[in-house]
Amino acid sequence: MKQPMLTLCALFVLCCLAAGDQTFRKGEMLIQIKNGQEIKTQGGTIFGIPGLDALGEKWGLIAWRRLIPRYDEKYPSISQMCLIALPEDADIEAVCRDYRENIDVEAASPNNYIQPTGVPNDVHWNLQWNLFTNRTNMPGAWELAYHTLPSHGYLNGNSVILAILDVGVDTGHVDLRGSLWLNEGEIPDDGEDNDGNGYIDDVKGWNFGDGNNLVFNSDDDQAYHGTGCAGIAAAKTNNNTGIAGVSGGWDQSIPGTTIMPVRMWNMRNNTNALGNAISSLYYASVNGAKVLSCSWEVNAIDYVLLQNAINDVYNN
Predict the structure, then answer these.
(1) Domain map of the chain by residue range?
(2) Selection from 290, 289, 281 nearest residue 67 by Cα
(3) Alpha helices (H) along the chain
(4) Which of 116, 219, 234, 315 fits as disulfide partner to 257, beta carbons 3.0 to 4.6 Å?
(5) pTM attached to this predicted model
(6) For residue 245, which of 255, 254, 237 has the smallest C-alpha distance?
(7) What is the residue-averaged pLDDT of the chain?
(8) Fold classification of 24-112 (topology level)
């Protein structure tokens, strides 16, 4: 099913191109090592690749790690991407230029900040989506999708997984009940990675900001941004509760979109950076998401790493 991904990628790039001034995390950069160069470990202080180790010594490399838990041949670009920690006073842009000139490096970038796209402070801003104009005509779309097409066998009871890559999704929200993704390969709260995907107890999704399974925290800045995105897409429809999601199914008789919460960052500790975005893209894709909501922008000039990650996701 590549067409939904094609739509995602177009929207994602437009969000990135809307970015403002360049800012990035001090003492951090991202690189993609060229395919064919084997990375033998998940992280450490040396790569075991002479040219990269020489650069690390030159710039005072503290440590590095992969952006995903292990090499995945289906995602060849993301598998070669690493986060490098350097001294906080390092000239990151100069370091990136130096790494880009190395024959073993495909791309290098500062670990640029990301942030949600503009959110107004009006109390009911998330209710101001006019679904009933002639241009949108959602009642007509619901009639077609939930009443006409099933009789012709087009839906077959299947639910598309939509990953919300954002600041978190309130999994206790009454209008999202029955619409949330669950990792059936994981046993809740046993402290084990039961399905072996590299994430412990990721029953409801993953939090890349803190490296745990807490996919929502109401104390976060803009905590409900992701919940609003999830509701617009998949709040239960025709259930006499809250709002009607665009693809929320129809009462209990027809399933709607399934929401996968992927919490990309914690705004309070400034983990809102490009590396987490790439890790989140991989997590969503490898766990079955076919559509990704990316309502954020990147403060960056060079998009090679991000584009390569998107290409990996599109090809899967």
Answers:
(1) 2-17+116-311, 24-112
(2) 281
(3) 2-17, 50-59, 92-100, 138-143, 225-234, 274-286, 304-314
(4) 234
(5) 0.83
(6) 237
(7) 82
(8) Alpha-Beta Plaits (3.30.70)
